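Friendly challenge for the regulars: who can give me the structure tokens for this chain first? No prize, just bragging rights.
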Amino acid sequence: MKKKKQNRSIIFQAILLFIAVFIIIFIGFVICNIFAITIDCIFNGFDNFTIKLFELPYLLYILFSLIISFIFTVFIEKKSKR
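First reply, four minutes later:
Bragging rights claimed.
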């Protein structure tokens, strides 16, 4: 019974790690591109700032974030060898 409870804890921790890494990477992608758009608009004018924000490829960022966070989570779990 204790082994089963420990397995649930390991899975729960892995899921939390995955979610935390996913959120951090996704927000990082978005913030980096917002800064890039802001710097571009400083030099070229802010007339189309909001249009450029809505044209960001958010689905692509989600896909990359999912892939990177999955690889990172698997790597960390393999290295921890619980």
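The mean pLDDT is 91. The helical segments are 2-44, 49-54, 58-80. Your move, everyone else.
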